[in-house]
Specification:
This protein has helices at about 15, 70-75, 80-90, 95-100, 110-120, 125-140, 160, 165-170, 180-190, 195-200, 210-215, 225-235, 245-255, 260-270, 275-290, and strands at about 1-10, 25, 35, 40-50, 55-60, 145-150, 150-155. The chain is an alpha+beta fold. It has a 5-stranded antiparallel β-sheet with strand order 1-5-4-3-2. The protein has a two-stranded antiparallel ribbon with strand order 6-7. It binds a DNA duplex through helix 6, helix 9, helix 12 and helix 13.
Length: about 290
DNA sequence: TTCCAGGTGGCAT
DNA sequence: ATGCCACATGGA
């Protein structure tokens, strides 16, 4: 069955899925994407209007009507990205160009647990290997959630599964030294409860600083990874993860050399939408360096 | 062969 | 508090 979202605005599948925020979506030969989200497997296809290629109909195959809210929430469809782009566009020429390249990016509202382990794996690693590592964790230790287009699909194993594993068990996933971080983290999430982790996404209950310092307690989570988790799964749109690409782009395009300068500049320049600006810039610089 | 990838933990000052 | 550096793995 199909789920259809008409009049979807400011939307571009490639820019959404290839901007480094998610790792379980893969492009199909027809340009659509197939992905796994919380034990649900869907294929996303976008049919743009003739006048505006960023506006059109989003069709999710293998999704049902009762999950309409879930997917609307996941794709952040209620947020007006056009207005955000307009506001950011007032700031400077650099961000305007970056937005032109990455137009249609949306911040997906992902599961905190999946995002936590995904970005622990991301450290000192590259995107194709991150994807392989996560896929390997799922196929080796996750539960099968069904078959889609002749392929068996597996969900992300919960903390109760990963906490029982040894470093040797995880060695098949080729995570390198990060395997022990994953096990440590799974044990802590299991102790604290997954609800505690999820509660960090609640803006009324938890402040940014509280959520940041809670995440920082996990082994393998430093400031960069914590900011990714806050941005990609916890509704914190001001968080601005600084990785090697971000130091590169801020040096090349804004002449900013160190991390402290970058962060104070970004806060002043982009404010509450720093994270969204970061996504445009990330996509932009990787494109410029031929990484896409 | 060496360098690099969505960095961080551990240790020495 | 700050500055190094090792860390697994595989692609260029």
């Amino acid at each position: 069955m199909e789920l259809v979202f008409e009049n979807t605005a400011d939307f571009q599948l490639t820019h959404i899925f290839d901007c480094g925020q998610c790792f379980r979506w893969n492009k199909e030969p027809d340009g659509s994407y197939t992905g796994v989200v919380m034990d649900k497997v869907v294929n996303a296809a976008f049919f743009p209007d003739e006048q505006d290629m960023y506006h059109g109909t989003l069709v999710l195959d293998n999704a049902c009507e009762e999950d309409r809210f879930f997917w609307k929430d996941y794709f952040d469809l209620d947020r007006n990205y056009g207005a955000i782009q307009k506001a950011l566009g007032q700031k400077d020429k650099v961000i305007r160009e970056a937005m032109e390249q990455g137009k249609g990016i949306r911040i997906l509202r992902q599961d905190p647990w999946e995002t936590l382990i995904s970005f622990i794996i991301s450290q000192n690693n590259n995107i194709p290997r991150i994807k392989r590592g996560i896929e390997s964790i799922c196929s080796n230790f996750g539960s099968p959630t069904g078959i889609y287009r002749e392929k068996e699909v597996y969900g992300v194993p919960g903390p109760e599964v990963l906490a029982r594993l040894s470093v040797e068990d995880l060695s098949v996933c080729k995570l390198g030294y990060r395997a022990k971080y994953i096990i440590h983290t799974a044990k802590k999430v299991l102790e604290d409860g997954r609800e505690k982790l999820n509660s960090m996404a609640n803006l009324e209950e938890t402040s940014f600083e509280e959520a940041f310092s809670y995440l920082s307690q996990f082994c393998g989570v430093g400031p960069k990874v914590a900011n990714c988790i806050l941005l990609f799964s916890m509704n914190r749109f001001s968080s601005f993860p600084v990785d090697v690409w971000m130091t590169r782009v801020m040096e090349e395009l804004y002449g900013l050399s160190d991390k402290e300068k970058i962060l104070s500049f970004v806060e002043e320049r982009f404010g509450e939408f720093g994270g969204i600006a970061q996504q445009y810039l990330f996509y932009y610089i990787r494109q410029r360096h031929g990484n896409l």
